[in-house]
Amino acid sequence: MILSSLLPEGRIRLLTREFLHGERLRWSEEECSEVLAPLERSIPIDDFLAALPKRLPNNKAELDGEIAVAIHRSLPVHRREAADPGVWRFLAVIAAPDFIRLRWSADEDTFRSRFWRPGTRPDSNYYSRLWWIAELTAGGDRNYDRTQKALSSQALANAIFVRSLSHYFPAVKACIEVLADKQSDTIHRVVREFYRELALLPREALTETDIADLLRGELS
Asked: 10 Å Cβ neighbour count for 102?
């Protein structure tokens, strides 16, 4: 299968109750042809589809780090392509909706958005969220240990990736290093206070060490 972009016009037509609950398992590309747009280059997604497990453990959240790494390694998209929300809609609605149904419950208020909404918020398109978290944590050295640590704590992942600081790599690294083993309430308090302080500082002038020191100061 070749990656395409699913246009916004397809939302009402495709995200039906029958589809969300799995009574309608999937839509074919032929059925959706009028709301699909080709990308500038041909990107096969066979490796991406093969990387998704067929079963999940009882504690589904524990698998998010592994899935993020698998998606990031197997999906050969550049950031410019990944910035297209339609890419993630295509993967979630056309290519691999069954895995999202495995991971999440159709009875949740946010279930629909996990097929559709782009970004890194916890209620975003599942594939978009995990790919971008892997992209923003792995860095140029492709150190997926940071990805795993970030997603091992939902509190840490949410605190970092609902904020714009997630796009400043030294801040991401420092937050993971300092806060990965902390309790949820501590993580949210420290990141919240750090984010307020960051608004008053020249972000680009702060090194990873500077940021780590600021975070440790908030811990004390």
From this structure: 14
Residue type, 137: T
Angle CA 65–69–75, to nearest 5: 140
Beta-ladder partners of 5: 37
* Span 135-160, pLDDT tens digits: 999 988 889 999 999 999 999 999 99
What is the rounded distance in angstroms from the CA atom of residue 162 to the CA atom of residue 218?
19
Chain centroid to Cα 53, Å, comes to 17
Q: Please tell me the distance from the alpha carbon of residue 124 to that of residue 117, in angstroms, as a whole number.
A: 5
Mean pLDDT, residues 125-136 taken together: 97
Q: Which residues contact 58 (CB under 8 A, 6 or more apart)?
A: none
- Is the CB of residue 97 less than 8 Å from the CB of residue 19? yes
Residues 6+ apart with CB under 8 A from 176: 137, 146, 149, 150, 156, 160
Instruction: Extract the tokens encoding 62.
Output: 């524990």
Q: What pLDDT digit, counting tens, does each position of 31-43 carry?
A: 999 999 999 999 9
